[in-house]
Amino acid sequence: MKHPLQSYFYFNQSSTIVMRDDFGLVHVSRDAGASWVRPPQLKAEDYESILLDPYRSKSRAYIIDDDSTTQFWTEDQGKTFNKFNVPLLANRMGADAISTHATESSYLLWIGQKDCDSAISPNCHSVAYVSTNSGYSWKEIASYVTKCSFAREPEFARPSKDTILCQGFDVTIGNQHAMKASTTARKLKRSTNLGASWTTVLDSTISYATAGEYMIAAQLEMGASEMKLFSSLDSVTWTRGTFEDDEKFPDYGYTLLDASTGPAFVEVFGSKDLGAEFGTLYKSIDNAAQRFKISLDAVNQDKKGYVVPSLSLLLR
Hints:
Helices cover about 0% and strands about 40% of the residues. By secondary structure, the protein is mainly β.
């Protein structure tokens, strides 16, 4: 390889590595990095991301090119790469371009961007699509979104396989790059029929995440300075969380620590001053993650808010 490594992953329980270098070239090694080849199907020279399917980590991955509507995936550990087409170029607004499903291997979500000749185009915005046939056809389901995902997870299994959650701005016009949560409301919506119809489950949300059997969402009401945390076991019923000694510090944000079973662990930001970031780690003391008790005080976090980066899901 001629260029420095940018990102990589191993296929689980194998010696096969997929790597993207600083120039956006994709390389594959089948001997744990001793030798490398460039797959002949991947001819572009500026791939933006390589993504291991978290639910099929032994075999499946996606190669994303932000400047093309042709994308690639493999389901045989990179031996071959098959192309599929997406409706729009990948969004450049911070949302994950592609998402997979925990139990339905042919289900995909894609978030592209529309009317974006430049970042200041007056109606530049994101558009979400769903596919149920591995990307061979797509259906538009939402616009002006900041995040979409299939609700069902390995442990968060109560939602139906066709349930989708999307968080987005409550507008249908304008430049999405210029929109901020402090001035433009975002709503968390749920669809149980693959985006055919939607129900609002929470207003004024900042973000949401799933860890184990819990789904957690952060809410910041218009004009407020502190956040509120809500939890759900099914994505339908949401309850506001309460924290022991919460009056000590303002709630500037939350970090949900990933856990497959048992109680939920949430770190509440206590300070966001650069170089002096810290928070308090709380542990849920009921089965619905509604009440939290202090587990550890004065917890270090990095400037982004992560406690343990590989196990943290940021809500801010």
